[in-house]
Amino acid sequence: MKVADKYAQSPDHIKEPPHSLVGRLQYLGPGFVLSASIVGSGELIATTTLGAKAGFITFWIILLSCVIKVAIQLEFGRHAILHGETAMAAFNALPGKRFKNAHWSIWSFLGLMILKLTQLGGIVGGVAIILHMICPGVDVAIWAFVGAAGAAAIVHNGDYGFIEKGALVMIALFTLMTFASLYFLQFTEFALSSNQILEGLRFNLPKEAVAVAIGAFGITGVGGDEIVHYTYWCTEKGYARFTGSFQDNEQWEQRANGWLKVMYLDAILAMIVYTLVTAAFYLLGAAVLYASQQVPAGYEMVEVLSQMYTTTLGPGARMVFLVGALIVLFSTLFSALAAWTRQYSDIFGQIGWIDFKDPIQRGKSINLLAWILPLIWTALFLFFRSPVAMIVAGGIVTSVILFLVVGAGIHIRYFRCRPGFTPSVYYDAILWLSIATIAFVGIYGIVRFW
After folding, report:
1. What digits encode the pLDDT tens for the residues 131-156?
2. For the chain, N or C: smaller number of CB within 10 Å?
3. Which residues are 99's β-sheet partners?
4. What's the distance, CA 128 to chain centroid?
5. How far is CA 388 from CA 41, 174, 208, 262, 266, in A?
6. What is the torsional sign of CA 55, 57, 58, 63?
7. Which of 55, 442, 443, 77 is nearest to 240 (CA)?
8. Of 299, 229, 275, nearest to 37 (Cα)?
9. Which distant-in-sequence residues (6+ apart) come within 8 Å of 384 by Cβ?
């Protein structure tokens, strides 16, 4: 039996969108797939590291990072539905210089994604360190290969949907534990005060925290690469496929608007969830780790992070934290791997090395990369052996990627918008606020850093 191509917009795939809130909730998913990859590297590690290093004073940048970037994400999601294009195809349609069939931005993305390999190497390291802490009889290096191979096996088979659902459930349980820890924090010497939180909401960025803050801004919430990844998940979930290829008639316009509403709900609800989780992680890091002057680093990273929970929930929470952190980081590992295999394959397709539109060639590329990328990540971890630094460095690269994404987002909005789908003035105002904030924080961080 021939499997339908999830990237094709044929009349056979058309489906009418749900019109009720309950109906739309049944089609949520792409935003929460991103959440699975966001929570591990951004919220669990980079956010708490920033809190441990800067205290409450940079709380504002974390909240801003989570909320402000969703407008760009929505623009790329709109484009995927209305044009049936992935983000890389949209980049390749930009005006400007081209080299060997591909726009310069495609080559830039390829170079930046190569630099970002260190970030996932840090995640592999985090998984390996936790497994070693749970089972210390096995060396960290061996656990790194085991974790990487596990993620590769899941993505290679392609049948990781049920594991994704299980990982999201465990992330939810781990999040509940985090909020419980935040609550019980109020009964310890590290109790939060309103003055501390208000201090974190004042616009200030200490020079010594600039590098970590830029990395955290790039990596918390949706990063530049994750905005790109959102187009793959919107496509594979079916939003673009159910809409069908463009037809200049009222029926297509109504159907497209219906699936756009589902996408908006998906992105906004996911944003609310990961913003709340991020805030909780940051406050724990600022309250416990900053007060005790402990900054997560090297192989001691997980042990230091676990103190956020043992301080408030008692020594018995250590193993619970380790299991929860393992699930969070591993869900990040395999969900990011699934997205990276698609993005790299798409880049190769835009350059002309493969035919990304051919489901057979696309599938072979994804399956091959599912093994190659984890091996590279593992090798990088074993070379650098500093998960936090690797993850923060990847976050800084992600901040650079955001500038590329913003430029493409402006072109998509003003030069490739479908007739009849011009957004409202309020939408544009939020979009430009997002663009301005991303540019300002990036430039401000560079100036302060130098």
Report:
1. 998 999 899 999 999 999 999 988 88
2. N
3. 102
4. 21
5. 9, 20, 16, 36, 30
6. positive
7. 77
8. 229
9. 118, 121, 390
Q: How much is the CA Rg of the chain, to the nearest whole Å?
A: 21
Angle separating helix axes 224-237 and 70-83, nearest 10 degrees: 40
Residues 6+ apart with CB under 8 A from 286: 51, 52, 54, 55, 56, 59, 196, 200
The length of the chain in residues reads 450
φ/ψ region of 221 (left if φ > 0, alpha if ψ in -120 to 50, else beta) reads: left
Q: Which two tokens stand for residue 156?
A: 């290679």
Contact 154, 334 (CB under 8 A): yes
Distance between CA atoms of residues 377 and 368, nearest Å: 15
What residues contact 433, with CB distance under 8 A and at least 6 apart? Answer: 68, 71
Structure tokens at 198: 């208000």
Of 222, 370, 282, which is closest to residue 45 (Cα–Cα)? 282
* Amino acid of residue 175: T
Read off the amino acid at residue 314: G
Question: What per-residue string of b and e applies to 129-148 under the rule 16 or more CB within 10 Å gives b?
Answer: bbbbbeeeeeebeebbbebb
pTM above 0.90, yes or no: no
Of 28-37, 166-175, 239-248, 383-392, least confident by mean pLDDT is 166-175
